[in-house]
TrEMBL record:
<feature type="coiled-coil region">
    <location>
        <begin position="28"/>
        <end position="62"/>
    </location>
</feature>
<dbReference type="InterPro" id="IPR009012">
    <property type="entry name" value="GrpE_head"/>
</dbReference>
<comment type="subunit">
    <text>Homodimer.</text>
</comment>
<keyword id="KW-0175">Coiled coil</keyword>
<dbReference type="GO" id="GO:0051087">
    <property type="term" value="F:protein-folding chaperone binding"/>
</dbReference>
<feature type="compositionally biased region" description="Polar residues">
    <location>
        <begin position="1"/>
        <end position="13"/>
    </location>
</feature>
<dbReference type="GO" id="GO:0051082">
    <property type="term" value="F:unfolded protein binding"/>
</dbReference>
<feature type="region of interest" description="Disordered">
    <location>
        <begin position="1"/>
        <end position="21"/>
    </location>
</feature>
<dbReference type="GO" id="GO:0042803">
    <property type="term" value="F:protein homodimerization activity"/>
</dbReference>
<dbReference type="Pfam" id="PF01025">
    <property type="entry name" value="GrpE"/>
</dbReference>
<protein>
    <recommendedName>
        <fullName>Protein GrpE</fullName>
    </recommendedName>
</protein>
<comment type="similarity">
    <text>Belongs to the GrpE family.</text>
</comment>
<comment type="function">
    <text>Participates actively in the response to hyperosmotic and heat shock by preventing the aggregation of stress-denatured proteins, in association with DnaK and GrpE. It is the nucleotide exchange factor for DnaK and may function as a thermosensor. Unfolded proteins bind initially to DnaJ; upon interaction with the DnaJ-bound protein, DnaK hydrolyzes its bound ATP, resulting in the formation of a stable complex. GrpE releases ADP from DnaK; ATP binding to DnaK triggers the release of the substrate protein, thus completing the reaction cycle.</text>
</comment>
<dbReference type="GO" id="GO:0006457">
    <property type="term" value="P:protein folding"/>
</dbReference>
<dbReference type="GO" id="GO:0000774">
    <property type="term" value="F:adenyl-nucleotide exchange factor activity"/>
</dbReference>
<keyword id="KW-0143">Chaperone</keyword>
<keyword id="KW-0963">Cytoplasm</keyword>
Length: 177
């Protein structure tokens, strides 16, 4: 007896189903239970992965906040001293002396954070750590040597935070020799 085709089945599908080995109800229930277990396990693993990703983002943000708070703590006394300087009624020389002390305090705070200035004076121009503001013809300074620092550059270990803005000598006498 041939099985009647329903609207969605083709003759090939019916033949393939008819050729398939018969599966007992017990085997079918076992496979279905195994599939359900695997689907459940997959859903749990996906949830664990998502939770781990969210935890990592949260921990990274907390670490960044902790690191920033450590840096800010170093600069609060500097800010306090600037505010005291603004309230000062001393002479211009006294104010200058106070600002010089604050600059030293700021430099010490930067050193404690492993921030080092980029070497400039007397150094040869290096475009990886220096930014040339201008080239000036100077016969008393070697060619490509920095003779003026306009803005100090800084680095943390080997990572450049900001290049030094410098004026560089151009010595045409050395170029010709």
């Amino acid at each position: 007896m041939e099985t009647p085709l329903n609207e969605t089945e083709s003759p090939e599908t019916v033949t393939a189903v008819a050729d398939a080995p018969a599966v007992s109800q017990e085997e079918y229930d076992r496979l279905k239970a195994e599939r359900d277990t695997l689907v459940d396990r997959l859903a749990r693993l996906q949830a664990e992965f998502e939770n781990a990703r969210k935890r990592e983002v949260r921990e990274r943000n907390e670490f960044r906040d902790f690191a920033v708070s450590g840096a800010v703590e170093q600069f609060l006394p500097v800010l306090d001293n600037f505010q005291l300087a603004l309230k000062s009624t001393g002479s211009a020389d006294q104010l200058r002396t106070g600002v010089e002390l604050i600059v030293k305090q700021m430099e010490e705070a930067l050193r404690s954070l492993n921030v080092q200035p980029v070497e400039t004076f007397g150094a040869t121009f290096d475009p990886r750590v220096h930014e040339a503001l201008e080239m000036v013809e100077k016969n008393d300074v070697p060619d490509q040597q920095i003779f003026d620092e306009v803005r100090r550059g800084y680095r943390i270990k080997e990572r450049l935070l900001r290049p030094a803005l410098v004026r560089v000598a151009s010595n045409s006498q050395q170029k010709e020799a």
